[in-house]
């Protein structure tokens, strides 16, 4: 019996090896399936035919050679990697009606979204590789959209497509490619496992909601060596569903410039954020926060470590928020939750230069706040140095900060004046400041640290 089990194990290993080898060696060129690559007509049907043929053959690589391939929605299938050769460009059509939404959901502002240029749903072993580029033509698409859709912008923007969407996929690789100018979010990974994102360049600005990388309820994720310039949050962790946490995630060696936050957890926050490590990142020229960690829809945010971060010209370097907005984003499968928790978070080894002009006037360095009866617990800030403008007045030091219990979590929600220039904390337990220092360009009459309704330990 033991010999039979060993034999079956050997056979299984051989079959898996053969399958992997087959997937790695079999290739399909999109031009063999009718793609022209001249940028004048839609090549997405031809690209889809190549993907489907590759899938039927058991998997492999679909090659996109140099050229410009005008495209609407393309769907990847099991065991297929789309490989963009150098000087290959997939160019999203500006006809927003040509895109498909294979997994609709509601994002944090209450808009239905999910249309995408490149998408994979319930697929295994899928990837996007190569030195080529995907360009969503976001600004041109928006211009065409507003001419045809006369609704207010807040009601219509959700129809604009994401660049990449990976939905409930297992084994996702995105490597070496350049992603540009999405119509909305640049990339969205929803309930995926075993995800690798490496050496990806993102240049996605020009329209609102141009998030860079959105990790939404994914497990076993590794992100490294990416260079992001985005109109919205650069690296954002979300949980738009209560069914699957963001967990076992390691991020390292990133460059991030953004009109919003560099590193963010929330805004959509129903399932936990846990066992996440982020290190060795440079955040610069942000128009909002550097590091923003939020749980406002019932999530447990815990066991997060962020270390070795540099920031230059960042508005409001850090914000930590436990709130009770309690929104629901997938209304067919989720219901409203109770207030979550925020515990056991460590941020260490941070050097930041705060921008002189910020959402807060004058700027403050670090905001930490729960809500009455719900405390941020065991947050440790260690070896932090922040350079600030100063200029706060005695009147600023007397300002009362709104609770905003059920409001959208944002720095400006608590401004424009904060009564401390360094750390302002409220509704906290076990807050530890270890070697946290501030350098002022100008005198500031506000206290360096304020802690309301909480306990604080300071270590020099």
UniProtKB/TrEMBL annotation:
Alphabetical list of SUPFAM superfamilies matching this protein: Pectin lyase-like
Family stated for the protein in its record: Belongs to the glycosyl hydrolase 28 family.
An example Gene Ontology molecular-function term: polygalacturonase activity
Rhamnogalacturonase A/B/Epimerase-like pectate lyase domain segment(s): 28-82
PANTHER family: PECTIN LYASE-RELATED, PLASMIN AND FIBRONECTIN-BINDING PROTEIN A
GO biological process, one term: carbohydrate metabolic process
Keywords: Glycosidase, Hydrolase
Domain of life, per lineage: Bacteria
Protein name per its UniProtKB record: Rhamnogalacturonase A/B/Epimerase-like pectate lyase domain-containing protein
